[in-house]
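Predict the assembly for these three chains.
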Amino acid sequence: MTWPPFLIYALLAGTAIAAAVGLVGYFVVLRAQVFTGDALSHVAFTGALAALALGIDQRIGLFAATIGVGVALGALGDRGRADDVVIGSVFAWILGLGVFFLSLYTSRRSAANGTASVDVLFGSLFGLSLSRAVTSALIAAVIVAAILAIARPLLFASIDGSVAAARGVPVRLLGYGFLALVGAAAAEASQAVGALLLLGLLAAPAGTAQRLTTRPYPALLLSAGLAVATVWAGLLFSYLLPVLPPSFTILTVAAGGYLLALLVTRDRTPVRAR
Amino acid sequence: MNARSLNPGLDTQLRQVGEKPTDQQAVIDLRHGSVDRGNRRLWSGLDLSIAAGEFVAVLGPNGVGKSTLLQVILGALPLAEGRVQVLGRSPGRANKRIGYLPQRRSFDPSLRVRGRDIVRLGLDGHRWGLPLPSWLPGGAPRRSTAARVDEVIDLVGASSYAQRPVGELSGGEQQRLLIAQALAPAPDLLLLDEPLDSLDLPNQAAVATLIARISRAHRVAVLMVLHDPNPVLPHLDTVVYLAPGGSLIGPPRQVISSAALTDLFGTPIEVLTAADGRLVVVGHPQRCDAHHERPTGHRP
Amino acid sequence: MTVTDGPSWNPITDLQQMWSFPFMVNAFRAGTIVAVLAAVIGHFMVLRRQSFAGHTLSLIGFPGAAGAVLIGVAAGYGYFAFCLAGAAVIALLPRTGRGGYSEESAVTATVQAFALACGFLFVALYKGFLSNINALLFGSFLGITTAQVTVLGIVAAVALSILVVIGRPLAFASIDPEVALARNVPVRALSVAFLLLLGAAAAEVSQITGTLLVFALLVMPAATAQALTTAPTRALALAILTGLIVTWLGLGLAYYTPFPVGFFVTSLAFAGYLGSRLIRRPRRGKATADLIASGIVP
């Protein structure tokens, strides 16, 4: 069977993006910062659409918004759980702003270009040109290298912050750097499965890996591997059954895998009386 | 205010227990130290010298600055006055030779990382990148890292549960693993902040004995912040008692006595001895707050 | 959205103009009903710190709505079916003791994303594609039928009557579950009941603001009210008032401009919330304020 170019490009970009998202996602789940990913998905939507409405490349708005807000969230500190009304309201408003840009964009452009907004929402792996696929893959590769370089001290800082700081690990700086990487990974994932679904790709393979093993480095690599496998399976399903959009199949495989892992390992964590 | 002695002739230098005194530098050497929190002076005129293998407890009411002392030694907080040397260097420089156990932290119950890996972080968690397999250049010989981790887990008696996810373990079990983590790089100094805090009594005694044993056998100096010295009383070499107006340093039985503490706090304090030998301190303020604030300038 | 005339800036004539269209009348009716219900449920949601449960439930409702459209049924029924089912599942899920925060959020995130993906699938299958997605996700006030208004009204009436009955014990159980339990308040049953009510409310609000923006009516008016006052009846009244103002203004603005109602409702609600946070009086202490807000302490 000959593989058409669009499939190859999708696999190229998808593999690299999945590896980056899987690695970053492991730490996101470990640090209980899943909520940050949720916030970033709203920001990704608004950023991309703002760029489109202003007539510039969507990716600029996307990356600027996610990385900028990601780092800013770090400056807010550890407030996540305590004040979720405030944070939820802010991000609901940001989403509303995105809708404004969406209608600005669709009312200005011809109907033929209307799919751009759906692409922002739900991704468009099959619509990538070679150059876009290569760019995405390169950015993803940079993210992968960065995460691997800081993996060990980041692990230490995430689990045992004060001890790590005492041992000379730059905990605060690492925190900011990590959030910038999360922003970048979110932007990449947004191109693959869309702003609305990127959280699933960030959380599910990582959650699955952490269910399957408790050894941190193997879990980290497993998270990346599972993400890549998920994207491959999803892309191939969607290619063989074109009625199913690729982001749907990818998410289904991701969610299904997580569910399976939860069921299979259910008895491994007995309820402990404290 | 300067640290006051019980009587003019009392030698406030600390004696070493057991080992022959060797001609090595003090593990901690603090002279006339003062520290501020915000614009409040916590303690001042503190003179402290701790030798290798010494077991020292830091006591005092809440808020007096016990944890702050540890922060100073770690180099996380600067002294307002005085100087301090840790392992012969400025604070913060020798931290790789210090094992630190911050105040009670518990792990998220769903944290899926093995206890054993938590311990290992104490060895190499601060190094960049991923741990390389032993057959690559630069990779630490695998056997030695694993062996060291096993050894120190065994030392704290946690071998039976070190393979389990740390989130599932009880408070006492987590605490033992954290002690192992602090011990893994064979430190010369152990700094422990309320290590017995949420342990039940049998565990308190067991962990106290464990730390004392390690301190003796491996000549590790121990500086332990506590609010109740009783679990470690039999093992202590020295007590540092901090009060809002000064401090007292000396052997436990002498410092924790009615006369000494009344003198230190300036209010009547009584030290009672229970039938089983435990000491109970009655009368000192439970919490240091604004009432005890001293202005930043010294009072003679 | 093209309009025949621009706004006259006189509220009376503007309203008359809008209400000359039956679909706008329906829109205002639906919006009013939903705003009232959302404000009341939202009051308890904020009290119980369950703001995100509402968001999650509306996301779960999205595939229901899209699926309903796919099979030719009104989206509203799909919303109700899935939101209520989702609420039931969440309520009855066995609490595996020490769940742990990070795992819980990973599971929630996956469920949310999967729900959205399923909804996307249904919409893609329907081929009426673009405008449908936007309407479902971000709200639309076009095409609200009288039947829809009736359903919304009945569900809201039932939900509100139930709330009148269980309101006080619910507030007690929300603030101090252990003491409430000791006083024989059926805390667990009330939690289940409230989640179901929340599901119904999420389904209702989704039909006005769209799936993604329910926060605007479900949480923000109630949060605004609770920031400004601690007395329970006043907080409820203020929440309802805020919700109504936001909805009416939002509908009006959406009518006269090409921008969707979801944007206006969200922005107005957020402006109100922001304003309330900036001007609110310092609290005596959260615990006391909570007790007062629930009417337990006068």
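The interface with chain B takes residues 98-104 of chain C (CB under 8 Å). Confidence is low (pLDDT under 50) at residues 287-298 of chain C.
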